[in-house]
Design a protein that fits this description.
With 277 residues, the protein is an alpha/beta fold. Helix content is 62%, strand content 8%.
């Protein structure tokens, strides 16, 4: 049977040829492994060994994607990510965390730091291929159809202009009606949703790992209700599907749904950053 890396080989190689990738990893062994995987997929990467070196590299070179080890000396991946987000002035770099501790809640720390996605360690070729293909297509689409998702807010652009580009995430007509057109209150609602939901995302991932269907149903129901309340229709639909699968005790697609929910909340955090004055 062909692996996912093999089936995605041609389009992935085409996309990787267009991308500038930075690998941030302190282990020489892990560096060699990941560079070998990238080479097999048709890509290359510059390499640094700590978070401070990441920031130094970004001051000299723009990278499309950073593969970011979470635990590094001098400055860890979380601190480096926060530093990147503070420095960004023209484009948003996609940051993919690499960690072995997702079941211990590290993904929540990734979201809070501003990361976009994650890879579990040890990194597998098919998973790396899937992530790079997804984000390279996302970058291509965003640049072509919606460049303001990658560009920082210009002084003459309002948050409303960015909101219109994110209708797949938020039902803005509903949220405008709910807030009576008060953009400050809309931002407050989105920030409240983000903060209140993070602990439930941690519990949801933990219970998926142990297939506790009752608790999965409870957490998915909470997220579905909270997202529905402010018109986050995409997240509401995903949480609803996860709730239904828990009711039917179907574990097969739960990891994929969980990933999509986490990515949706990453997009929500990016939106909140754009909306903040």
């Amino acid at each position: 049977m062909e692996s996912q890396a093999q089936t995605a080989d041609t389009p992935l190689k085409e996309q990787l040829a267009k991308l500038k990738i930075l690998l941030a990893e302190d282990s020489l062994v892990n560096q060699k492994v990941i560079l070998s995987l990238l080479k097999h997929l048709g890509g290359t990467a510059d390499v640094v060994g700590d978070g401070q070196a990441v920031l130094n590299s970004l001051r000299a070179t723009h990278y499309d994607i950073i593969l970011m080890d979470c635990q590094m000396p001098k400055m860890d991946g979380y601190g480096a990510t926060r530093g990147i987000r503070a420095l960004e002035a023209t484009r948003r770099t996609v940051i993919i965390a690499m960690t072995a501790d997702l079941d211990q809640g590290d993904w929540l720390k990734c979201i809070e730091a501003g990361m976009d996605d994650y890879l579990s360690k040890p990194v597998r070729s098919d998973e790396l291929a899937a992530k790079l293909l997804y984000w390279s297509e996302h970058l291509t689409s965003a640049t072509r159809e919606n460049p303001q998702l990658l560009l920082a807010l210009d002084s003459d652009l309002s948050a409303g202009a960015h909101q219109e580009s994110l209708t797949s995430l938020i039902d803005w007509d509903y949220l405008h009606e709910l807030s009576d057109g008060n953009e400050a209150f809309e931002l407050e609602l989105l920030e409240t949703l983000m903060g209140a939901t993070l602990p439930h995302l941690e519990l949801l991932r933990t219970n998926i790992a142990i297939a506790d269907f009752k608790k999965i149903e409870q957490e998915a129901h909470y997220i579905k209700g909270s997202t529905a309340s402010i018109g986050a229709k995409g997240l509401e639909a995903l949480a609803g599907r996860l709730e239904e699968q828990a009711q039917d005790q179907q574990i097969e697609d739960m990891d994929d749904l969980m990933l999509k929910i986490e990515q949706g909340f990453s997009q929500l955090r990016a939106l909140i950053t754009l909306m903040n004055p």
